[in-house]
Automatic annotation (TrEMBL):
<keyword id="KW-0457">Lysine biosynthesis</keyword>
<keyword id="KW-0479">Metal-binding</keyword>
<dbReference type="InterPro" id="IPR036008">
    <property type="entry name" value="Aconitase_4Fe-4S_dom"/>
</dbReference>
<keyword id="KW-0456">Lyase</keyword>
<feature type="domain" description="Aconitase/3-isopropylmalate dehydratase large subunit alpha/beta/alpha">
    <location>
        <begin position="23"/>
        <end position="454"/>
    </location>
</feature>
<dbReference type="GO" id="GO:0005739">
    <property type="term" value="C:mitochondrion"/>
</dbReference>
<dbReference type="InterPro" id="IPR004418">
    <property type="entry name" value="Homoaconitase_mito"/>
</dbReference>
<feature type="region of interest" description="Disordered">
    <location>
        <begin position="475"/>
        <end position="495"/>
    </location>
</feature>
<comment type="pathway">
    <text>Amino-acid biosynthesis; L-lysine biosynthesis via AAA pathway; L-alpha-aminoadipate from 2-oxoglutarate: step 3/5.</text>
</comment>
<dbReference type="GO" id="GO:0051539">
    <property type="term" value="F:4 iron, 4 sulfur cluster binding"/>
</dbReference>
<keyword id="KW-0408">Iron</keyword>
<dbReference type="InterPro" id="IPR039386">
    <property type="entry name" value="Homoaconitase_swivel"/>
</dbReference>
<dbReference type="GO" id="GO:0046872">
    <property type="term" value="F:metal ion binding"/>
</dbReference>
<protein>
    <recommendedName>
        <fullName>Homoaconitase, mitochondrial</fullName>
        <ecNumber>4.2.1.36</ecNumber>
    </recommendedName>
</protein>
<dbReference type="InterPro" id="IPR018136">
    <property type="entry name" value="Aconitase_4Fe-4S_BS"/>
</dbReference>
<dbReference type="Pfam" id="PF00694">
    <property type="entry name" value="Aconitase_C"/>
</dbReference>
<feature type="compositionally biased region" description="Polar residues">
    <location>
        <begin position="475"/>
        <end position="485"/>
    </location>
</feature>
Length: 687
């Protein structure tokens, strides 16, 4: 999506400084004009250090081969892991796994079999994701890599196939939010408590489709495992990345935990790499005049154990409040890429068997507590430390290292009417089993305590001690840093270059679909999603069918859809974009977009613009009119692509102006993708 410029682009009379996100993107951007600094709002072609795919490696491989590609552009860039459906021993799944393994071996791609661990954990353990690099994965929890100072962000399958074939794909640098973690955590409160609190307290889409940079005077006291958990769940908070700074704490963590494991000759994590990293740190600080879209602050010293749910990460309460409600627990989970590292297993084990004692607090007979380490290395370490044995003696049920019940696969799923508490990242309705079950999220210590007592409870209740946490609401503040209009710098006033075949101007009448959170099922019904070879004519007829059947008669070829906020949220179906194109609509304007929809739009040559001010003006205009889900507005939009300017007029393209808006530059790399009919066409042209 092409965002409007206010607060999201270059500022100042000459050259605007860069934040850390922009500096890392600059390092991995290709084809950028010499001397040009990249900033939020810019479309860039990126060549990430690494690209991981897991069980979806075979669908990516099929796309790759469908492009006509015969060799991986850079085998060292690609990583394949098997981690999602590893408990499934059906012939069909085993065949898929063998196909992935054979493909990886034939192309010289690094491959990790089922049982080695969750792909994101492997990427960190094996140093593919490394401080200050940009690493992507065809999985939404690629944000995890931000915990070790790498810019991690998800891509969709078409992007992954493009990277396999050409080494690169595209990215629009999002607005960057600064999140200050002020103060120091009370003893016993964890990184999971921080991110659950952030998701629940800042729950009005403050960071939707933003990159996050975490700051704080005492951030160096936050353990790396806490950082990984927080970064992992910035996905659920709505962000595209969650980046922690590189500091002494992180470098010491590599020297103390990774180098002894990997050995001196490791190709990615070695003393030379760490020394070079340490020497380069001064230049990797955000510039003094770096631009941020907003700043959110939370005082860690005011935090308690937080629990999210049921069935939503946007609802969070202290564990004491939920404990008073006597919410029974049927199943508990210590699994997933969020909280199954060694420190997490040890935190749960310390509740099962408190330090200095040999007493084992048994799991309630009414609860099943499932445990899986994030990787085979983590399980081995947990066995060596004694944590694994304590958990097993308490009555935990072991699962193999990898994903599982977190994504509704394998043993231990929630049944109708059951309540689960989990140290995972998502508690969406039906994700971990039945849609008629309730799921809560919490830290490993709280999950263990709840499993022991048979209800949502705190560790202190197991120990019979008094907790000394603040009883007041956590202290937090929000500051919008992009509220004032600021003139664009001199280097942004020259017309952008327009490629042959790309329109210099795009215009049409605005058709208002007046709702927020229109999901992909509303745009393209799920009953058609898995029907192969649906004709374009049929796709056009069912476009927006689940949102509003009257859309078909009200919207015409050449119109421009304008909708509310978070348009295209939901599943990753590409048909949500291609159905709109089939209807003859080439541009969608919204207050904001679901990120996966945005990627699928560009990948399929559908243009998008974010203009919140236009949405608000239209809603004001029609606030006293009878409600219509789809409305022809009588307003017309003209986008002067070369001059980065949008003009909205009333009654006709020559009518009175109701809005003028500067937008970001649509770079040549994105124009080329659109001209080629989408990313697959662009890749074929490259090949």
């Amino acid at each position: 999506m092409l965002r409007f410029s206010r607060g999201f682009h270059r500022y100042g009379p000459l050259r605007q400084g860069q934040n850390l996100t922009e500096k890392i993107v600059q390092k991995y951007a290709v084809g950028v004009a010499e001397g040009k600094l990249v900033h939020s709002g810019d479309y860039v072609s990126i060549k990430p250090a690494h690209c991981m795919s897991h069980d979806n490696s075979w669908p990516v491989a099929l796309k790759f081969m469908g492009l006509g590609a015969t060799r991986i552009h850079d085998a060292r860039q690609i990583v394949n892991t098997l981690d999602h459906d590893i408990q499934n021993s059906s012939e069909k799944n085993l065949t898929k796994y063998k196909n992935i393994e054979n493909f990886a071996k034939s192309h010289g791609v690094d491959f990790y079999p089922a049982g080695r661990g969750i792909g994101h954990q492997i990427m960190v353990e094996e140093g593919y994701a490394f401080p200050l690099n940009m690493t992507v994965a065809s999985d939404s929890h690629s944000n995890t890599y931000g915990g070790i100072g790498a810019l991690g962000t998800p891509v969709v399958r078409t992007d992954a196939a493009a990277i396999w074939a050409t080494g690169q794909t595209w990215w629009q640098i999002p607005p960057v939010a600064q999140v200050e973690l002020k103060g120091e955590l009370p003893h016993g409160v964890s990184g999971k408590d921080i991110i659950v609190a952030l998701c629940g307290l800042f729950n009005q889409d403050q960071v939707l489709n933003h990159a996050i940079e975490f700051t704080g005077d005492l951030l160096h006291r936050l353990p790396v495992d806490f950082r990984l958990t927080i970064a992992n769940m910035t996905t659920e908070w709505g962000a595209l990345s969650g980046l922690f700074p590189v500091d002494k704490t992180l470098i010491n963590w590599y020297r103390e935990t990774r180098l002894p494991k990997l050995g001196a000759g490791h190709p990615r994590v070695n003393e030379q790499a760490l020394s070079q990293l340490e020497e380069s740190l001064p230049k990797w600080k955000p510039d003094a005049d770096a631009r941020y879209a907003k700043k959110l602050t939370i005082d860690l010293s005011t935090l308690n154990h937080y629990v999210s749910g049921p069935n939503s990460v946007k609802v969070s309460n202290t564990v004491q409040e939920l404990s008073r409600q006597n919410i029974k627990v049927d199943k508990a989970y210590l699994v997933s890429c969020t909280n199954s590292r060694l420190s997490d297993l040890e935190a749960a084990a310390s509740v099962v068997c408190p330090s200095g004692t040999t007493k084992i607090n048994k799991i309630s007979p009414n609860v099943k507590f499932y445990v899986a380490a994030a990787s085979s290395e983590v399980e081995s370490d947990a066995r060596a430390s004694g944590a694994w044995e304590k958990l097993m003696k308490a009555g935990c049920i072991p699962l193999p290292p990898g994903c599982g019940p977190c994504i509704g696969l394998g043993a231990g799923l929630l049944e109708p009417g059951e309540v689960g508490i989990s140290a995972t990242n998502r508690n969406f309705k039906g994700r971990m089993g039945s849609k008629d079950a309730l799921a809560y999220l919490a830290s490993p210590a709280v999950v263990a305590a709840s499993a022991i007592l048979g209800k949502i409870a705190s560790p202190a209740e197991v120990f019979g001690t008094q907790e000394h946490f603040s009883t007041s609401v956590a202290t937090l503040t929000e500051e919008n840093l992009s509220s004032a209009e600021t003139p664009a710098p001199a280097d942004n006033t020259r017309p952008a270059e327009i490629l042959e075949g790309f329109p210099s101007e795009i215009s049409g009448e605005l058709v208002l679909c007046d709702a927020d959170n229109i999901n992909t099922d509303g745009i393209y019904p799920g009953k058609y999603t898995y029907q192969d070879d649906v004709p374009r004519e049929t796709m056009a007829k069912v476009c927006m069918e689940n949102y509003d059947p009257e859309f078909q008669t009200k919207a015409k070829k050449g119109d421009i859809i304008v909708s509310g906020f978070n348009f295209g949220t939901g599943s990753s179906r590409e048909q949500a974009a291609t159905a709109i194109l089939a209807k003859g609509i080439n541009l969608v304007v919204s207050g904001s977009f679901g990120n996966i929809f945005s990627r699928n739009s560009i990948n399929n040559a559908l243009l998008t613009l974010e203009i919140p001010a236009l949405v608000e003006k239209l809603r004001t205009k029609f606030k006293d009119s009878p409600k219509e889900l789809t409305r022809r507005t009588g307003w017309f939009l003209k986008w002067d692509v070369a001059n980065r300017k949008v003009v909205v007029t009333e009654d006709s393209l020559e009518g009175p102006v109701v809005l003028e808006q500067t937008v970001g530059e649509l770079g040549k790399n994105l124009q080329e993708i659109i001209v080629k009919g989408g990313l697959e066409g662009w890749v074929k042209a490259q090949l």
